[in-house]
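Bench log. Compound arrived from synthesis this morning; before running ITC I wanted a structural hypothesis for how heme C sits in the protein. Inputs:
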Amino acid sequence: MGDAWPEVVEKVAASEKYRPAFDELFGGDVSVETITEAIAEFERTLVTPNAPFDKYLKGDKTALTEEEKRGALLFAEVGCTSCHSGAYFGGENYQKIAESYFADRGGEIQEADLGRYNVTGNDAHMHMFKTPILRNVEVTWPYFHDGSAPDLKTAVETMAEHQLGLELPEADATAITAFLQTLTGEYQGQPLDEMSAN
Ligand code: HEC
């Protein structure tokens, strides 16, 4: 939250929704420390099981459509898994975003575009980003560090083009998108996609 902390503290302290909880749990202490602790506690509850893809792996063969299955195979075949690996389909490595991505996007290179370089100052980390986890990706638009892709299919096509040098046929991009939508789980017993629609 960078420079916004004073404003965040002020808003939480004045909030009818959060203030009573801070009074009860932290003796009225609304500060960077207590807000950070509250967010960390919240994040520990962010477990989202029962995605259709998980149900399929557990043996429910009806959990995925033919197109979603085709998308899952394509996701591996075209090479998305070389970066988006493991049970979370990401979160395991840092990867460079191709120069062609920035050229195509247009606009000035911003500080955020430098990626991991901002943290380490090491030239080898220029434009490197943590490969994001793709679980629940359906409900976390817009995509990429700069929010430049407004919807999931655009993000899939952009990845194929710039990270793999591939122009995906329309039907394949649609199938991979359909597969990624099967990674949306449930939060506290409620489907996440329905919650975010409210
Ligand atoms: C060379 C590594 C690499 C490959 C290959 C790759 N990705 Fe990515 N992917 C990344 C990185 C790094 C990011 C983060 C980019 C950013 O934030 O600017 C990303 C971001 C994404 C996002 C956006 C996630 C978000 O929350 O913003 C989606 C969706 C995605 N990739 C899907 C795919 C698909 C589908 C493929 C295969 C067609 C693929 N990726 C291939 C490394 C890769």
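What the model suggests: The beta strands are 94-96, 128-130, 186-187, 190-191. The pocket of heme C is lined by residues 75, 78-80, 82-84, 95, 97, 129, 131-132, 134, 137, 140, 143-145, 155-156, 159-160, 163-164, 176 (CB under 6 Å).
ITC booked for Thursday regardless.
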